[in-house]
Amino acid sequence: MKISQKEEFNKALLTWYHQEKRDLPWRRTSDPYYIWVSEVMLQQTRVDTVIPYYEKFIASFPTMESLAEAEEEHVLKHWEGLGYYSRVRNLQAGVKEVVGNYESKIPRTRAEILNLRGIGPYTAGAVLSIAYGVPEHAVDGNVMRVFSRLFMIEEDIALPKTKKVFEQRVMDVIDETDPSSFNQAIMELGATICTPNPRCLLCPVRDFCTAFEEGKQEELPVKTKKLKKKVMTIHSFAISEPGGKWLLRKRPAQGLLGDFWEFPQIECNPSMDSADALKSATGLVIEQGEAFAQFKHIFSHVTWHVEGYHAVLKDSSPIPEGYRFFSDEELELVPQSKPMSKLLMHLKNN
DNA sequence: AAGACGGGGTG
DNA sequence: CACCCAGTCTT
């Protein structure tokens, strides 16, 4: 989208929002304290989960004074099951600051409100814009997803510094006449339409979306995956031909063990018979499989539990593209993974 | 910049 | 089961 289209964009966005927005409890109030409570509850938590908690919390602590004076244990009880319990401890601490230092008036500037416990860049912007109508950015994961597509921003949203790019872009586009609706509309869009798997045909602003124009909406946002430890169970099939040759396949050039040769293998699905799984994954049809080896192999970020099966290929089985037979001599000449050579060693020794 | 913090929904 | 999600604080 071009910045010059700002006015048409905001008209389309806000019209859609006013028509389609969900009726949520915190959208029926303009009390800054209630907005604050809702925004804290909504951090990392779904709307449907929050609603009953919000109702009960507001009923029990209807004013900032009542929350400030309450026992922490009592407050915590109202958060039970919501998770991230430091949120509510920080909320109460922040409310105490407002009651004690700001005459129970939540500050109206980003710099001041950011000093409050539990209020970070997102919540600051959300409260300022929604409760006070101040044109401030409120950038969360949804906003980054939506804007990355609208403007084809391809920077990695997993990097903290990238958020500044989005905050600046929001400030360029935000509707100064109704910042509250603008911020909520972007988040509503991200929650209902511009989801990870976007439903572009329903989108009120797809005509402004650069990613949609170029068919790249599925590729955005760019987010490097955290390398979490992964554990997989792999079934490898040592399939031999009557002549004594082994059936191997080459791994993809890219990624782990690129271009290495290995036994046909599948990620083990416990609910499925191994031979059936092999057939559906590779097309190979085997007569039978007999377990002959089992070991663990650890790569940098993934642990394989390898189970080897000695199997006989059915006469009628197809040999898929990328598979070929190797004699023992030929095998010496091609690269193979550690799990592969371990299995081979096992076979030779037995 | 990376890790901790909870729980629930989803493919 | 891995991954995602309306973030903030600590290290």
Report what the structure shows.
There is one protein chain. The protein has 350 residues and is α+β, with helices and mostly antiparallel strands. The chain has helices at 6-20, 32-42, 47-60, 64-69, 72-79, 86-101, 110-113, 121-132, 141-150, 162-173, 179-192, 210-213, 274-282, 328-331, 338-349; strands spanning 230-240, 246-250, 261-262, 265-267, 286-298, 302-313, 323-326. It has two domains: 3-219, Hypothetical protein, domain 2 (Endonuclease III, domain 1), CATH 1.10.340; 230-349, Nucleoside Triphosphate Pyrophosphohydrolase, CATH 3.90.79.10. It is 43% helix and 14% strand. The strands form two sheets. A four-stranded mixed β-sheet has the order 4-1-6-5, sandwiched between helices. Strand 5 and strand 6 (302-313) form a beta hairpin. The protein is elongated, with a radius of gyration of 29 Å. 33% of the residues are buried. The structure holds a DNA duplex (11 and 11 nucleotides).
